[in-house]
## 1
Amino acid sequence: MTVEYEVIAVRYGTLVARRSALYLHWDAYGEPDGDERLDYFFYVLRHAGDTIVLDTGFHPDAGERRGRTCLRHPRDALADLGIDRDGVSRVIVSHLHYDHIGNLDLFPRARVYVPERELSFWTSDIARHPQFSRHVEPATISQLIALERQNRVDRYDGTRELMPGIRGITVAGHSPGQQVFVVETAGEPLVLASDAVHFYEELEHDRPFAIVVNLLEMYRAYEMLRELRQELGAVVVPGHDPLVTERFEGLSGTPPGLAFRLA
Ligand SMILES: [Zn+2]
């Protein structure tokens, strides 16, 4: 049986920053600097009464400490969408940065799928260097470890069908175990790139994002995503681009600007 997901992007936070702060070595391009909006999303995937949440956003406190605006607490955003959090069967995590795994306690019944390389890296000594550690919340990593002790965590890695209709691919680059996801829908396959691609511009103009652990892997991820687009006709959705709110339709019956139908 083919599994086709309905996919909703939930925009719960936002930030305005200089392009020179968002792109790696902006001076390489010889273009003027300027302001750029960066939005924060998580995703809801639904099929036949089953609800999966992909990434869980930042906790408002962790976001505000970093100067991000929380537009809607993810808990309230889910309520706006009419989602019963107790009914969320699985949470899939793309990487362990603070803005992707906050709010795990909102999903008391979910199994949590975590990239093996992410969990290994973020619990290792080297992750304590400030250039890495500033991107995570230690309390959230501890929460994942606690969940694993309760046998609620599935580690995954490489290219793997996590569940029917959802394939995870390890691309790394931005973070040591960064994942992208190919999701089957009623239309073209959807690729949720998460932070492998923050902005469309990274793919269109080959311009890496500023936060990177391995630049070669990041470039290879761009290459692979362009291939997926060409070979599968896949629709690639960047993880933080405000253009998502223009290129996809708002979800009817929800507050304007909050939820967008990707498929
Ligand atoms: Zn990230």
## 2
Amino acid sequence: MLPSKLVLALNDQFNNELQASHSYTAMAAYFSKKGYHGFANFYLVQAKEEHFHAMKFYEYLVTMDEKPMLQSLSEPKNHYVSAMDVLESSLAQEKEVTSNIYALVTLADELQEHATLSFLDWFIEEQMEEEKMFRDMIARMKHIEEGGEYFLKMDDEFAERKLEG
Ligand SMILES: [Fe+2]
Ligand SMILES: [Fe+2]
């Protein structure tokens, strides 16, 4: 059992990760419609990763004898004007998740919940990597034109992305 305040916060993050998955699926659709199937694959894999993150919270709650509670998802942004718009929205979303994780760590620390602190360590690392990944993609995209030769090379590269467990 965990303090109820912490259970609510962990459960919110379980749902936030599902919302992130929902949002990345909408981003994939921008690329699918344009015929950039590599970028679409990248975002569909990203959506699966977020679902995997959600299930880590699900399993942690179950391990601690708590019940995961599903909340309704909100409609994600469905209209993007460019690949850069999608990438910048992705980075903004990851920064928001990082601050949610930090708030959870702060709460677990205040409550002296060491098991939860240890569980959250993985997410601190993961957020560092996710933010870096999108920052790097934005840096590459700054020098190229959407639909241009180098962009299509990136599209081929992203077609190879697979879910890492
Ligand atoms: Fe995540
Ligand atoms: Fe993420």
